[in-house]
Structures are given as structure tokens and as C-alpha cells.
Predict the structure.
Amino acid sequence: MADEPILSVRDLHTHFFADEGVVRAVDGTSFDLHSGRTLGIVGESGCGKSVTAKSILRIVERPGRIVSGQIMLRRQNGSTVDLTTLPTDGREMRSIRGGEIGLVFQEPMSSLSAFHTIGNQLMEGIRLHKDLSKRAIREQAIELLNMVGIPRPAQRIDSYSFELSGGLRQRVMIAMALAAEPRVLIADEPTTALDVTTQAQILDLIRRLQQERDLAVMLITHDMGVIAEMADDVVVMYLGKEVEKGPVDEIFHAPRHPYTQSLLRSIPSVLAEPRSRLATITGSIPHPFARPGGCPFHPRCPDRHDVCEIIVPAEVVIGENHVTACHLYTKVPA
Amino acid sequence: MLAYLVRRVGLAVITIWAITIVTFIILQLPPGDFVDAYVAQASAMGTAISAGEAAALRHAYGLDQSVWVQYYKWMAHIVHGEFGQSFEYGRPVTEVIGDRLWLTILLSIGAIIVTWGLALPIGIYSAVRQYSIGDYIFTFIGFVGLAVPNFLLALIIMYVGLRVFNVSVGGLFSSEFQLAPWSWAKVWDLAGHLPVPMLILALAGTAQLVRIMRANLLDELRRPYVVTARARGLSERRVIMKYPVRAALNPFASTIGYLLPYTVSGSVIISVVLSLPTVGPLLLHSLISQDMLLGSTIILMLGVLTVFGTLLSDLLLMWIDPRIRLGQLK
């Protein structure tokens, strides 16, 4: 990890300003993406994973807004730019979207327009970032479809999304995300809507493309299995905050934060006693407008102390690149 | 696709035939017939018509025969392109309708174009800038437009036109051209008179379409495919115009089906108020005087217009929506 990161997110806060109050969807998260490595972001639904991805691309919908923090991108020409300072619909931000950072979205069924052929949408992605002739763009689009493993790409390029299966659509989405050869790929729950066999194929595809293109991948998922298979580093998020972050082996073998421990306990295992109850995390995610004070996880935490209800825990360094935000590891007397 | 077309056209023909039957039956429903109305009118003017004379008139018009014989005769003529004589005007129905038909169609198509031209951009603006001041203003005007009957609007515009600008808004021709044969000067005169009635006719439909467009587009704007288009690096304006607006266009195409006949039948009162030489007032009058053949011909024309409009919007939908073209949506 000696190389400089391509993208570093520092203390990002993205809030939604609704009439009923402010939802702190992302509330202080920091991580780095490196070429050739995969960062997994895990957490339950509604913990701010997708909003983090949208914040990086600056496509957070109103009434959401980045409140503070930095998103530093090392551009292809060597300069570094803070994405939070760019106008959202400006030329530079648009050249970064698709051009330097590609996005694969979670719903392959509805992420493609039914009114345009997949080729139309794929070629649009190339045309926006490259100055090529029509014919060259079409050839490249067919080449991309071939690369992601779509059979008969020269014919399929003129088909509509509703003529393809879910797995094929997700392959098209990946081709689209990589159309302009970005160096960062954000995959937001890329396999959630797919059946298990297709899931494995898509993950293999992402890994293969990562190796071929030395991509920095940010993989968002709620599936610990996917993380174990794909990630080099892991960020565990809860209610918009990162609670633990570290190398994948440490997270799985020496999880420190009670939330990470509970998540790992709730993975079904083939080695478990048959007919035994699956461990779950007690309680459910609190309503966004009724956020608990102190540590956000304390109402559901098995190891809670009085201090957790009052003071937000600071991040503590546990080992090399391994940090967690929990009072169990701070010096505050419990 | 060809099979689909053939089926649609076949259905259209059957529908039109059914319309002729219904039309004829409906026109027979009110008590009395044209001769009764004629006798009543004559006696009101002080001329007595004897029972014998009335019977002779009935025989002359064929009103003494059964409904089915009358229908058969009417149909037999229509198939040959003859629509019969108007009882009241004593002239062929086609001649009575004459130019009015073309003026009506011109006015209707103009009104539809104005409706679309206004509703499309306003609907897009209202959805994209939801809850902005502009959206609220358009929403307010839209609801007023829906609530105010447009003949009232026609009256107000006439009043304002006369009082403030000292122009007479009524009619489609200046008095010197009213009976003149067609010439470039008359066409030019018509062009000057068209915009105001077109606008009034368009307004009610516009308010409705703006609401439809706004609601549809709001739905589409939140779809994932909009996010992916944005993530590709497309500018916000292009994203919206290319993807969600395209998807929200379907109801626009469907509106032709009902807008075409609506601008004819829905405009009767406006046409009377603005004294427009269109088909609407003629229909009203023929129904009052029970002028059978004139009335049925006009209603038949409205029916054909509806069927034709629906067919047109089906074809348009096939053209703009690949899911329909490729048989995904039934």
C-alpha cells in the first residue's frame, strides 16, 4: 500500500434536508481507493452506502447535499482535484463521471432506458469522452460487449434492454461503466438483484476486468460473502458512520466493533448445527429522524455501557490500517 | 406488425359501422320528428299546416317508413358518397357542411398543436423544478384553466378585445370576406382571425396535459436509468430531454384520440359564443330542429374522427415506444 491512492474520501458528510428534519445519510466517512485493489463497503440497508457512491460522482438528488468533507481525485494528468468543490453540472465534473469514475448501479432491470437500444446508450458513454468517428465508436461498443461476455455482440448492440436477461443487462451495465476507460469503478450492489450463479459470474467478470485494467474498485454490498470473496480492504458503515475499517483478513478473523461481530455472526454457515437459529442483530435500524445520541449503534449493542449513550466514540487505531470507533477500545473509563 | 395494423384498421371499420347504427337510433329517440318541429315552428309564425299537408311532407321526406327502412336508405346513399338532403336547408347535407368541415379540422389541429406546444415545455419545467415559484404559478393557472368553463373565457376575451383593443374577436372572417369566394386575401384574413379561437380551444386541454406531463415526468425522474445516464457524464439538460421526457411522452400520443373529436364537439358553445363558422353550432341546430340527415352525418363524422384519432395515436405510440412495437406490452 505504498502507492498513492487514486481517490481519497475525507470526513464526508452528506445530509438530506427534508421538511421533517435533516437526515444525516453520510455522517463522517473516510477511505482511500488504490489501483488494482478493491474496497468493500458493507452495512445494512439505509446506512449511507449508496449515498456515499452518489456523493463521489456528485449526483446526489435534492434535497441531499454534501455538507462537508473532501473527495480528492488524482486525475489522469497527474493533478489532484477536490470533487466537492466542482459545480455538479460543470464540464470538469461531467468529464470525470464516466471518464475517470464508472458506476454500476444496483438494479439492472431499470437502470437501462427501455426506449433506446443498449448500443445507443453504450455508444453515448464513449462519444461523451472520446473524439472518435461514428464507425469507430460502434466498433468499440461491440468490443466492449464482447469483453463483458455478451454472445453475438454485433447483433445484441441493437437490441433493447427488455430483450435481455438480468445477468446480461448487468454485463451491459458494466460495459457501459467502463466505456470511457475510467480508472475507478464503483459497483453499488452489482449482484443483489441476480440469482446466485449469475452473481458469481458477474463477480468473476469484475475481478477479471480489474486485473486487466488495474482498476480501483469500490464495491458496495450488504453481503459479507461477497466482501470475503472480492475485497482487499473493508469499511463497515452504520447509520452513515464508519464503525470499523481494515484489511479483509483482520475484519473477518479479528473483528473488533460489536456491529461487525454481529454482522459476521449472522452469516448462515454450512458448518452450523442443523436446525439451529440464525443469529440476528437485535432491534432494527432506527428511523432516520430519530437518531440515537452518542454511539449510533448503542441501542442494539450487546456490549453497551453508559458512556455509549452520551459520547460519540472516536476512531481508535487497533493495528496496521485497522481502526474502529468503539468505547470498548478507548481509554475512557467505562 | 403488419398483422397488427390490419387488425387495427379492420376494427376501425367495424367501429364506424356500429357508430352509424347507434347514431341513427339516438336521433330517433326524442319524441316527434322533423315535420312536428316544422309544424310547431310554422304555427308559431302564424301559418297553420293541415294534417294532410304534414302527412304529405312526411311521405316526401320518407319519415312515414320504418326506422330500419330509413336506416337502410341512408346507408345505401352513404356508401355511394351521398349524405342526402338537409330537411331544414333544403340543400344537400355536404353543401350545408361545406367549408365548415375544413375550417373545423384546421381549427382543431391548430388547437392540438397549441395545446402540445404549451403543455410540453410547461409540464417539463413544472416537474424538473418541482415546488419552485414557477411550478406553483403554472399549477395555479392550470387549476384555474381547468375550473373556468372556456366559453366564459371566450366571453371575457371578446369583452376585453372590444373594450380595450377595440377589435371584434368573433368569427373567422372579416365581414367583407364572409361570403366572398376563396382568394389569397381571404386566406390571409382567416390567418389573422385564427389565433384567438385556437388559443381558447387549446387552454382547457393544456391545463389537463400539463398536470399529466408533470406527474409522469416526476415518476420517471426518479428511475435508476436517469441516474446511470447522469453517471455516464451526460449534461443534466440532455439527461432529462433524452431519457425521462421520452418515457413521459406516451400519454401525449394517446391524447390525439380524444382531442380530435373534443375540439369539435367540446367547442360547440365556444363556437356559438365566438360565432365561428364551424361544424359545432350546425350540429346543435340540427338536433334542435330534428334535421335527421344533417345531424346523423355530423355525428358520423365525429365518430370517424374519433376512430381515426385513436388509430393515429396507436400508430404514434408504436413509433415512439419500442416495447409496444416489439410486442412486449400488450
